[in-house]
Amino acid sequence: MSDIWLAPAKLNLFLHITGQRPDGYHNLHTAFQFLDYSDELTFTSRHDGIINLETPLKGVSDEDNLIIRAAKLLHSQANCNQQFGVNIRLKKVLPMGGGLGGGSSNAATSLLALNQLWQLNLASHELKRIGLELGADVPVFIHGEACIAKGIGEEFTPAYPEQNWYLVLVPTCHVNTSEIFSDSALTRDSKTLRIRAPLNWEVLGKLRNDCESVVTKRYPEVKQALSWLSKYGVARMTGTGCCVFCSFPTEQEAKKVQNLLPLDLKGFVARGVNQSPVKRSLS
Asked: Which of 67, 92, 120, 273 is the most buried (most CB within 10 A)?
């Protein structure tokens, strides 16, 4: 039996770093919203205990691939026997190192899909706990609802940002997350704000991404993309990746600006959604 599951992108509508913990992780204050723009994963049962990714990613070893790591961690923590195996195929759309959460989304979707495929019946909070071992962004993709997040990104409060259209630019560089978080110039003392509703761009436009200044100094391609997109509205970097975005009220307006892109800039248009596509499919 095969099944196709979506692994959507996310945006950090803002990202404030409020401190660094003794374990090296950083405490964050951020807003997550999903995009109706996704990788696709196909899971086919096998009954020999083998976890096989049929579409490996160039330059990513099995030991570092979050899809394989998620499947093996779930297999181990759920005490699965050797009858539980899977063949996995990935149709990759989301850019790597872009700040859209592609790897974390792939891991979360793998946990959700295999929980169903293997009939493990683990609760959402159990999957989030497993997901947090794989990365700080994995639980929000299991959660599947737009939210304000604190801690290392795993403490959620419901949020209902406007479901606008976004033009997302994808510069031709791969930002190293650990490099950004270890930079001595990174702001680490932003205050946790009480954000008033509704979560619209009148509010969000006054906030920021604390990683942006560090990234733009190291990666001129990101600085160029932000500069160009800022001509058409509030432009912001998402997460610690290279991708930058701007909000538009309609698809037509977003595509109108997309059509003006210079040849050396690439991007896509997608709708912001407050329930992820994979969460909708499970509802």
From this structure: 67
Listed in sequence order, the residues at least 6 apart from 44 whose beta carbon sits closer than 8 Å to its beta carbon are 1, 2, 86, 87, 88, 89
- Catalytic, 58? Answer no
Class of the CATH domain delimited by 2-158 = alpha beta
Catalytic hit among 39, 62, 128, 137 = 137
CB within 8 Å of 7: residues ≥ 6 apart = 38, 39, 40, 41, 94, 102, 105, 106, 108, 109, 141, 278
Of 10, 128, 223, 279, the active-site residue reads 10
Q: What is the pTM of this model?
A: 0.95
Output the pLDDT for position 1.
43
**Cα distance between residue 104 and residue 139, in whole Å:** 9
Which of 21, 5, 2, 7 lies closest to 153 in space, CA to CA? 21
Q: Quick check: is 10 catalytic?
A: yes
Below-70 pLDDT ranges, the chain:
1-2, 197
Superfamily of domain 165-273: GHMP kinase, C-terminal domain (3.30.70.890)
